[in-house]
What does this fold into?
Amino acid sequence: MTIIAAKDLVIPLARAGGRANWLYLPALLVAAVMGLPLLYLGVRALSAGPAIWTWLGRVQTLHLLLRSLGLALAVTFSAIMLAVPLAWLVTRSDLMGRRFWAMVLPLPLVIPSYVGAYLYVSLLSPHGVIPSLLSTWLPLAKWPSIYGFGGAWWVLTLMTYPYVYMSVRAVLSMSDRALEEAARSLGYSPWAVFWRVTLPLLRPALTSGGLLVALYVLRDFGAVSMLRYTTFTRAIYLHYQSSFDRSTAALLALVLVLVTVILLAVQQRLDRLKVAVVAHTPRPSPPVRLGKWQVPALVLVLIVVGLALAVPVGGLIYWLVRGVRVGETLGSLAVPLLNSALAAGLAALVTVVAALPLAILAVRQAGRLSRALVGWSHLGFAVPGVVIALALVFFGANFTPALYQTLTLLIVAYMILFLPQALGVLQAALRLVRRNLEEAAASLGHSPGQVFWRVTLPLITPGLTSAAGLVCLTTLKELPATLLLAPPGFPTLATRVWGAVSEAFFARAAWPALILVGLSSLSMLWFHHNPYTRNEPTS
Amino acid sequence: MIRLFQRLLFTLMTITLAGCSALSTAQSTPNAGHVVVYSGRSENLVAPVFAQFTQATGVRVEVRYGSTAELAATLLEEGRSSPADIFYAQDPGGLGAVTAAGLLAPLPDDLLSPVAPHFRAEDGTWVGVSGRARVVVYNTKRLRPEDLPQDLRGFTDPRWRGKIGWAPTNASFQAMVTAMRKMWGEDETRAWLLGIQANQPVVFEGNAPIVAAVGNGEIEIGFVNHYYLYRFLREQGETFPARNYFMNNGGPDSLILVSGIGRLTSGKNPENALKLIRFLLSPVAQQYFASQTYEYPVIAGVNPERGLPPLDSLTSAVINLEQLADLQGTLDLLHATGILP
It folds into this structure.
């Protein structure tokens, strides 16, 4: 099996109707907006006195940074190990009920990390619900502690593996199986085909998904604080929380930006060793028969879905039932539900449209500038959400008062927060589009615009929907920007959940949280219905 | 492809229409005007009281809910361009930061005078709305009240090793440490902090998880504000095995803290802002806090409920809340002792 190097296949878009240089205009505009938080961080950090610089030199600061990085790397590794087999099973195998699992597997992404961690703690902590139930049958002298590195590691893995899963699934459901079939026909075992053909194809998806996981862990506050693992981001929060000290917080956030630069360099380096980028128009082909592996595969999927989704959802139902039984009433959630759907739908649309020019340039006109633009757009992703929200508060209130606290600015905030998620998936998808199809269309007299609309866009639809789904899910649970930037009187499901959990009203938190999970399932159902998955043969 | 776009367009239109109609119903016709509140107190606790205010006066209340710290930071970023009329904070720390930036206007005397001087700012820029006592919450299956020491210093005894829960990042806890520094002195406070630290306390992010952990037996006692317990009792029934222990010794361990409210100088609805503050200090609203959020009223004539010991029966710490403003000293101490990272 030979793997064709990407560069041999790449024929510059120039031949297919000219370089799309005009795309730099929207791309630069988007990049300028993405730079706002960085500008704010710079302004704040510089406006501080010299005393705060001693913070950077403290041993504890370095120690915290190492703790954060260690957790980020561990979670990234385990998320990839979990996501790749899952994505392969639901796209390539005859796993029982795979279309259902495909829809359910990304859902843990929607459970807000402060709620998820709270539930894991209340269910699994040494004196939590599950150990006390099990202790009658399984009298362990010492139940393993959920607190510290171990707990944070596995809770965050369960919450973030969907980032890798989504991008891998998009690539697997798009990329042509001809290569794999050829490898099979040459006598390779399915295992060898996976290692030597499928996995190299996945490389861009793995590095971009893995990057998202690492950056998510770096900026997470809710889960690590519940699980009592102190990280760098917790230190940033403490500066806001205790001393309202925005300057030190900004300086520390800039350290996270620096870490992001390093991680991006690593990612782009791994990415540059790219291999076969071959895709025909996907066509139906028979799934790999699992045979005796059917049961173990199902068990794996069941365990992941059980731990990542059923445990938190079960916990929410438990809260709800317990509260209702002692007379807690459940109010109507029509307005928060509509607000959440509206904000998430618009955010998904705007973010994907904004990411598209950047993604096309990065893939089709790979060069220093396009790479720099993509990297630049990621810089804010490791910064805790509250910092981004405050940056937009600063610019919005002082420079665009007409837009401040309107839906428009809120959607811009979501775009800044979640554009990197869409970018990774879109790039991975675009790399699979075979150039000669576009060239053929161009040679038949189509303008570049028509080529894009009638050939490229349909080919990357799974990527588009995956990206939109990812943005939608994460927008639904987003908190700091929603709280600070939403129009007045714009409650969402996430703000309702947060308002109740933070004050220990568990039953009142459970109700909107369950609706949130339900709404996300619906959005997954919608995003999952795209032409290709629909045409796939069912097992 | 076309079908996909049709579907996308249709869904988007439906969502937009639904969203718009939701927005328009939320905005009723303004006649008595409106007032914009940034509330660091949870919607679950204060929305009903805002609704009562609107019903009584016709003034619409637009509320932005968030954590007190984040809203304080927001107000500082917005500066004079802030749309807010009122900042309603969970603890005086946030109000202090906004006052220090010169963003709060002094309140008129008739609003301040019904509230005891140690429950409001000396310069009159904010006033307390409801009080909470610092207490020790204990597990009733493991401990009886007689087992508990008379004062927080007793918890440095090795007998409490691994059995204590605390939340060093919590604003109320930090206020208590500030009070300790003022009443016990720096050295004794440091000794106490190190003494508790030596007992390997379990660290929590807030009061509610401490009460939950005392209830399930993970820890035996915790340093908290009094009212969280009653939420647990309401949701989980009276069998929930935790109760409050009031130190009642006049020291920093029996501190009474307040939530507070202030008016922003830049606010565009000063009249309505004052109306709202006046309403929150009225017997109706104070009664609501007593019976629904289980807090202490701050005006005379309204009594606490749920069997709470009345304020005047508590020999609470006589410390001016203004003296608690020295938060930075407390934070430095918490960092120096390694309790905060």
In short: DSSP finds 26 helices and no strands in chain A. The domain at 60-535 of chain A is CATH 1.10.3720.10 (MetI-like fold).
